[in-house]
TrEMBL record, chain A:
The keyword Lipid biosynthesis does not apply. PANTHER family: XANTHINE DEHYDROGENASE SUBUNIT C-RELATED. SMART domains: CO_deh_flav_C. InterPro entries: CO_DH_flav_C (IPR005107), CO_DH_flav_C_dom_sf (IPR036683), Diverse_Substr_Oxidored (IPR051312), FAD-bd_PCMH (IPR016166), FAD-bd_PCMH-like_sf (IPR036318), FAD-bd_PCMH_sub1 (IPR016167), FAD-bd_PCMH_sub2 (IPR016169), Mopterin_DH_FAD-bd (IPR002346). Residues 1-177 form the FAD-binding PCMH-type domain. Keywords: FAD, Flavoprotein, Oxidoreductase. Signal peptide: none annotated. PROSITE patterns: FAD_PCMH. Pfam families: CO_deh_flav_C, FAD_binding_5. This is Xanthine dehydrogenase family protein subunit M. It comes from Ferviditalea candida.
Automatic annotation (TrEMBL), chain B:
PROSITE patterns: 2FE2S_FER_2. It comes from the Bacteria. SUPFAM superfamilies: 2Fe-2S ferredoxin-like (SSF54292), CO dehydrogenase ISP C-domain like (SSF47741). This is (2Fe-2S)-binding protein. It holds the Pfam family Fer2. Residues 1-77 form the 2Fe-2S ferredoxin-type domain. Keywords: 2Fe-2S, Iron, Iron-sulfur, Metal-binding, Oxidoreductase.
């Protein structure tokens, strides 16, 4: 099916983009990879009067490392990070998550920022960005600000972005220490959204203790969630059979999965425990 | 809106409505009926074409987004009446029944094989995970892609040998 009619704009700068957002208000929508927005428009779930295609804004392309952060521009596609060897050692969770998003064609178009702004509780990037303690760089009429990922997600399909703001990049703090990460996901069929997904990002000090543990949970509530108790518990401890078992149980306390066609809440909670346990076991072996 | 798109090496200029999807632009404006529409949900991959060398689902790209870009469709595979190895292999290995998914499958397979010819079964299955076939299952499709990879590798080797022979003659 065809989307309903709209006016199309292809601004060249962020300022121009914001100007268009101010002009159209809620009737204007940013088009990045279009892999969530266009399917919704084809089904007429979304009918924006104006599409503001940001693909021609040069400043939003590419990623780079700068003063303590990895800056991933708004137009970085899932596929751009899938096999990026320069990032594998320090940010292993990026490629481990990217390969789980949809399928190769969707990964070639869809962007990471688009996925975050779409704010689907089943967003794999949402969980991964929580685990990496990301911040979203937001530009609006009054300038640039950084929003911690936990404050960015407000509700299902709702972020803290104002109608005239754009997510220009996602920023990851550069880790100090050895990093191990896993993305674990169960899906009904290849390329599907998660029945449940778990992102684990562990940073180990050189004395073997955990400097930081980040756990993001996907499809476990209204928004991507943080398993905070499990994180707090692990910091300063060693990864051994006992702490891994304990952390995997504590992670269950942060999750509120719903019983639906994909499975019962009990089943999903148990899956979550098993995933965290497996992820930590694999990370422990890798970081030994 | 006026757009210029290079499709299979040839430049086309057309007037399109912004809501025109790339797949309809190819099928209805350019009369290239290779890319199929099999779903409304970006799931089936029957509409797969290459946009600037990368496979995309052309039902989920606007034609205006292809303005100034390069598109390759299944019609671009065959050259001077000779089937591309990937087409030849789908035929030889019976990698299709009704053929509805085939144009998309061929484009995904082509893109995989351009990068690497000796693919494992797992790499192939992951590579075509965005293409659904309702008829055959994937066994013969995987076989066809492996066979095409062998043919492409042999051809490459042959070309290399020839250039070495020519080189040593100087
Ligand atoms: C078949 C299929 C399978 C999928 N499977 C998965 C999956 O397994 N896991 C998963 O997590 N996702 C999955 N998705 C969802 C999709 O891949 C993501 O949501 C993502 O790619 C969207 O990014 P985009 O750039 O395409 O965003 P768009 O579709 O272009 O935009 C999405 C929304 O975000 C807004 N927006 C985009 N960029 C910005 C920006 N920089 N600033 C402000 N607003 C912005 C748009 O206005 C729109 O409201 C799937 C999608 C499809 C079609
Ligand atoms: S028609 Fe494009 S994915 Fe099905
Ligand atoms: S051959 Fe019929 S859908 Fe694949």
């Amino acid at each position: 099916m065809f989307p309903s009619t709209f006016d199309y704009f292809a601004p060249k700068t962020v300022e121009e983009t914001i100007g268009l957002l101010q002009r159209f208000g809620y009737d204007g929508k940013i088009l990045a990879g279009g892999q969530s927005l266009l399917p919704m428009m084809k089904l007429r779930v979304a009918m924006p009067a104006a599409l503001i295609d940001i693909n021609h804004v040069d400043d939003l392309h590419g990623w780079k490392e700068e003063d303590g952060y990895l800056r991933i521009g708004a137009l970085t596609r899932h596929a751009d990070l899938e096999k990026e060897s320069a990032l594998i050692e320090r940010y292993p969770l990026l490629s481990k998550t990217a390969e789980w998003i949809a399928d190769p064609q969707v990964r070639n178009r869809g962007t990471i920022c688009g996925s975050l702004v779409h704010a689907d509780p089943g967003s794999d990037w949402g969980a991964a960005m929580i685990a990496m303690r990301a911040e979203v760089e937001v530009v609006g009429p009054s300038g640039v600000k950084r929003v911690p990922i936990d404050e960015f997600f407000v509700d299902t399909f709702t972020t803290s972005l104002d109608m005239d703001e754009i997510a220009s990049a996602v920023l990851l703090p550069a880790p100090v220490g050895k990093v191990g990460a896993r993305y674990m996901k169960l899906e009904r069929k290849a390329g599907d959204f998660a029945i449940i997904g778990v992102a684990a990002n562990v940073i180990k000090a050189y004395d073997g203790t955990i400097l930081d543990a980040g756990f993001g949970l996907c499809a476990c509530g209204d928004i991507p969630l943080r398993a905070e108790q499990a994180e707090q518990y692990l910091i300063g401890r060693q990864l051994d059979d006992e702490t891994i078992e304990q952390a995997s149980r504590l992670a269950q306390q942060s999750a509120r999965p719903a019983t639906d066609l994909r499975g019962t809440a009990e089943y999903k909670l148990d899956l979550l425990r098993v995933f965290i346990k497996r992820a930590l076991q694999e990370i422990a072996a890798e970081l030994k | 809106m006026r757009i210029t798109v290079t499709v299979n090496g040839r430049e086309y200029e057309s007037e399109v409505e912004p809501r025109t999807l790339l797949v309809y632009y190819l099928r209805e404006h350019l009369e290239l009926k290779g890319a199929h529409v099999g779903c409304d949900t970006t799931n089936c991959g029957a509409c797969t074409v290459l946009l600037n060398g990368k496979p995309v689902k052309s039902c989920t790209v606007l034609a205006v987004q292809a303005n100034g870009q390069q598109v390759m469709t299944v019609e671009g595979l065959e050259q001077d009446g000779v089937l591309h190895p990937v087409q030849q292999s789908f035929w030889e290995e019976h990698g299709l029944q009704c053929g509805y998914c085939t144009p998309g499958m061929l484009m995904s397979a082509y893109s995989l094989l351009e990068k690497k010819q000796d693919l494992t079964e797992e790499e192939i299955r992951k590579g075509i995970s965005g293409n659904i076939c309702r008829c055959t299952g994937y066994v013969n499709i995987v076989k066809a892609i492996q066979s095409a990879g062998r043919q492409m590798a042999e051809k490459k080797q042959l070309e290399q040998n020839q250039s070495e022979v020519i080189g040593s003659g100087n």
